Amino acid sequence: MWNRLTLTELAQRLAQRETSASEALAACWDRIQQVDPVLHAYLSCDIAEARLQAEAADRALASGATHREQPLLGVPISLKDIIAVREQPLTCGSKLLANFVSPYDAAVTEKLRAAGAVLFGRLNLDEFAMGSSTENSGFGPARNPWDPSRIPGGSSGGSAVAVAADECAAALGSDTGGSVRQPAACCGVVGLKPTYGRVSRYGLVAYASSLDQIGTLTKDVRDAATLLGAIGGHDPRDSTSVPQPVPDYTATLEQGVRGLKLGLPKEYFVGGLDPEVRAAVEAAVAQFQQLGAETIEISLPHTDYAIAAYYIIAPAEASANLARFDGVRYGSRVAGADLLELYQRTRGAGFGPEVKRRIILGTYVLSSGYYDAYYLRAQKVRTLIRQDFLEAFGTVDAILTPTTPSAAFPLGEKSDDPLRMYLEDIYTVSCNLAGICGLSLPCGFTRQPRLPIGLQLLGKPFGEATLLRLAYAYEQATSWHREKPPLPHAPERA
Amino acid sequence: MAKKDFDVSYVAHLARLELASAEAESLGRQLGQVLAYMAKLEELDVAQVEPTAHAVPLANVTRPDEIRPSLSNADALRNAPASNDGLFVVPKIVE
């Protein structure tokens, strides 16, 4: 059962030689065989290559390598299939890239390798990270381990599922408008979206470049602190990565929350918030007060405009970024009479409906005559939203909100209504627009059916240490993170 | 600000995206709704507000202009749908 351990627990067992990297990987692989036919967290898994990495880690351990130097030595970690790993598939959940093999490693991949991790498996996602349910995967949806008839959240759905279902020790995802935090909330794990610029985006296939950030999905808060420490830092290959030193996030975890001030934005506790989610979040507020934190009501007055601004800016950037998928240099190609027809047919056949929707929307808001009315106006509203947060952080150390308005919804419920689906992101998109950091952690369950509820903490730019410290204190005082989904489920009949 | 005559086929042409007619019809309807929702932003007076393109506290990031390791020709071509003689193959574009 080595797959059930947290990253930190597993690293300790490896250090004490109670298990080996090869055994830990084998336990994950067994678990994948057992549960993934239903959950579909993984799009592919090159287990033979992963075994070689595990054997190399075991040899390193045998010859005296330590977890002090390599904190992830021998720990099996899986990546969302939009982060490049050399010689492995990089489909981005898109049929257009079904056969793409990455010729290089992302910066985070290099860093995880240097820290000793065993990288295995490619995790399911909404196509090009566009979606909130993983239903937009070109290869079939992932399913929620707490109830496989429900969505696991998205777009890093596979990452959240794999961690929740103990198919790996920890995972990386990417978060453009909530794509790490929302699936973490839906699946009952910890999801951390670092400050824009904290983690290099080199080798992360771009969706909306000014909002994208790689984040962690882990079984607890300490694991998030360890993993962020491993992947954070400046990288000259990403000009938006910020040259700020990476602190030891684990060193400050246990400092407690006495004296810290938490803001509760009144605009987040309004109609549309499910009563059970509200009750769980309010109980968490009481828990923080008991732990010695101060809580005050604050206002983020432009909250109501965040979805509209986000769904202009993100598709605008996406329409530009996805122009590169034209059937010329990589991906599938559909022939045409001339180059124009080749482009049109290739993109028409290769992209799924949500990606087409966002490309059309983004192209429209950038087009002549509409640029000022939509794109420029949205960028100005982005300024107002960012100012809301920076002003709030003048008085509070962090902001506490629900991660999602309700628990995981059934597959198919919103897939034909894009606007309803977009409104699901109401609590998460502002964080990306403002470029701050955010974290979701489990804070309870709905009654019937029993589904995880997520608590979101939002922090100052480069304030991850404070967020992790708050989350750790709450986690130590509660037991939500120790609950496991009722697996395995029998495969549904086709 | 949401134009009633949102022309999906024109925008699809700009985006070099072929759409089946049923697809264009449903996309047009859905995006009409989305754009109507965006009209919300008109409620705000943003005349005196500067736009934010990104939230990074950096400007004009440069690096020395030096040759560094990069993808080999073979690596760059390995995912190409068609290549020949170290080059991408595309339909003729100049008569």
Describe the structure.
The complex is a heterodimer of chains A (494) and B (95). With 494 residues, chain A is an alpha/beta fold. Chain A has helices at residues 7-15, 21-39, 47-62, 107-114, 157-164, 181-187, 221-231, 275-290, 306-321, 339-350, 353-366, 371-392, 418-423, 429-434, 464-477, and strands spanning 42-44, 76-80, 118-123, 170-175, 190-193, 213-218, 261-265, 294-298, 398-402, 437-445, 452-459. Chain A has one domain: Amidase signature (AS) enzymes. Helix content of chain A is 37%, strand content 13%. Chain A has an eleven-stranded mixed β-sheet with strand order 1-3-2-4-6-5-10-11-9-7-8, with helices on both faces. Chain B has 95 residues and is mainly alpha-helical. Chain B has a domain at 8-43. Chain B is built from three helices and two strands, in the order H-H-H-E-E. The longest helix of chain B is centred in the first third of the chain and has 18 residues, at 21-38. Chain B is flat and about 55 Å long. The interface between A and B is large, with 76 and 52 residues.
Mean pLDDT over the residues of chain B: 91
Main sheet of chain A, how many strands, which sense, barrel? 11 strands, mixed
> Between the first and last Cα atoms of chain A, what is the distance in angstroms?
30 Å
Number of H/I helices of chain B: 3
Terminal-residue CA separation of chain B: 43 Å
- Domain tally of chain A: 1
Q: Report strand order across the widest sheet of chain B.
A: 1-2
Q: β content of chain A, as a range? A: 5-15%
Oligomer: heterodimer
Q: Quick one: biggest sheet of chain B?
A: 2 strands, antiparallel
